[in-house]
Amino acid sequence: MAWANAPIKQTLVFNKPLDTHVSRLLIKRLTPAYKAIGVDISIIEFDHKSSLAAANLGELDGQIGRVIGISKEYPNLIASNTPLMYLNLVLLTNKGQCENCRIQQLSTISHNPSYPFAQKFIAQEKFKGEVISNNNLASQLHMLRDRTIDGILVLEYLLTHHIDDATLAHFDKRIVSQKPIHHYLHKQHKAILAQLDLQLMQSAEATLEHKTPK
């Protein structure tokens, strides 16, 4: 293949991720680590839905941050050994509904199908109740307050990014699962990834609190 013995590139190109607190944090952690090994990164506008396939083909140099395990489907992408952060899946329920609620105690759960983390968790827990897909977090919260549903599975960063504290005060929030987010490079850049991993391990910014699910 053309990239089998590709020389080290001094500028790596990634698609611009969705603009969230998490993506900004990932870029903030990666930029100085790359700079320390003499590599620049260029972040370009690119169709988000096709970015994984493009990175696997070498059209992009990798992915800024993805949950661990995508190499099974995209075998040309290799993950950093060091996670950049941890992604928390939380269960929202009404105040006082149950103590330390688990989804097995609920009859109806809502989640956003655009984020497969929740879907996988529901399958893993063998949830027997009704699952309602809803892409609108404000709508989900309204349904929860009206007790149309019993709980919402949502990524924690979406709550902090989109929902104010006064609204969240109506609900109990519990971390139910956690996944590490890793940086991915196309395997033609494995030498760069090895250098980058050393920087991430040595960097104080890569020392992250790991919240254990309760």
Automatic annotation (TrEMBL):
Highest taxon above the source species: Bacteria
SUPFAM superfamilies tied to this protein: Periplasmic binding protein-like II
Name of protein: Solute-binding protein family 3/N-terminal domain-containing protein
Species name: Pseudoalteromonas spongiae
Lineage: Bacteria, Pseudomonadati, Pseudomonadota, Gammaproteobacteria, Alteromonadales
